[in-house]
Automatic annotation (TrEMBL):
Residues 189-224 form the Gram-positive cocci surface proteins LPxTG domain. Residues 1-27 form the signal peptide. This is LPXTG-motif cell wall-anchored protein. InterPro entries: LPXTG_anchor. The lineage of its organism: Bacteria, Bacillati, Actinomycetota, Actinomycetes, Micrococcales. Keywords: Cell wall, Membrane, Peptidoglycan-anchor, Secreted, Signal, Transmembrane, Transmembrane helix.
Length: 224
């Protein structure tokens, strides 16, 4: 049964590779630094290894704030929390300890005020203008994320793109483009913003209008 579920998880990642989105999960391995890997047996008496399945890995845009939505399924451990680490050159650099097994975390370098994004990784506000470059350049265009329950699994995740409905960069810095909606492993693992909507016929005009409205709104927020 576990082997079948692993096969389903691997199959679910294939559409991401076809889209050119990096989201390749590593084999889950026990960590010598984390307690709780107990194994045990399943309902058929077969031995259970320590495993960690990444069932949802979805970069999303939430009110101009880039975030990572996730869900993990640990086996062979009584641990009920996960430590999420964003790795820079293989080293845990931004760490969210003791998170629930499913939830959402802020993308490193993103800043929100009153639930609205006001700063983004890879950009700095200099003399009132946004310029490329800051200490979080390494989290774009993709970043390696480690999930540790014991065992540990890692996955490369793409930064969520801006859309006409939600900006993950300063105004005018990215070409606004719509993408597929977010789904879970029961459908297809998606690595695009949850607020990305497909454009209908005549969408070019709607894109232009939406981009203009977004730019006006962003300028008003900055002036305020």
């Amino acid at each position: 049964m576990r082997a079948f579920r692993r096969a389903v998880a691997v199959a679910a990642l294939a559409p991401l590779l076809a889209l050119g989105v990096p989201a390749v999960a590593s084999a889950a391995t026990p960590s010598p630094t984390a307690p709780g890997c107990e194994g045990g047996t399943d309902e058929y008496g077969d031995p259970l290894p320590c495993e960690l399945e990444l069932t949802v890995i979805s970069p999303i845009c939430d009110n101009d704030v880039p975030k990572l939505q996730y869900a993990v399924d640990p086996v062979g451990t009584p641990n009920t929390t996960v430590t999420i680490s964003f790795l820079k050159d293989g080293v845990p650099t931004v760490v969210y300890p003791d998170q629930p097994l499913n939830g959402t975390v802020l993308w490193p370098g993103a800043v929100e005020e009153d639930g609205v994004g006001v700063d983004w990784p890879g950009w700095s506000l200099v003399d009132g203008e946004w310029v490329e470059g800051d200490e979080y350049d390494w989290v774009r265009p993709s970043v390696t994320v480690q999930f540790e329950v014991n065992p540990t699994a890692t996955v490369d995740v793409a930064y969520p793109p801006s859309t006409p409905q939600c900006a993950t960069s300063p105004s005018g810095s990215d070409v606004l483009a719509a993408g597929p909606t977010t789904t879970s492993r029961s459908d297809v693992l998606a690595a695009t913003g949850s607020q990305a909507l497909p454009l209908a016929a005549g969408g070019a005009a709607l894109l232009a209008a939406g981009a203009a409205a977004l730019l006006v709104a962003r300028r008003r927020r900055q002036d305020a």
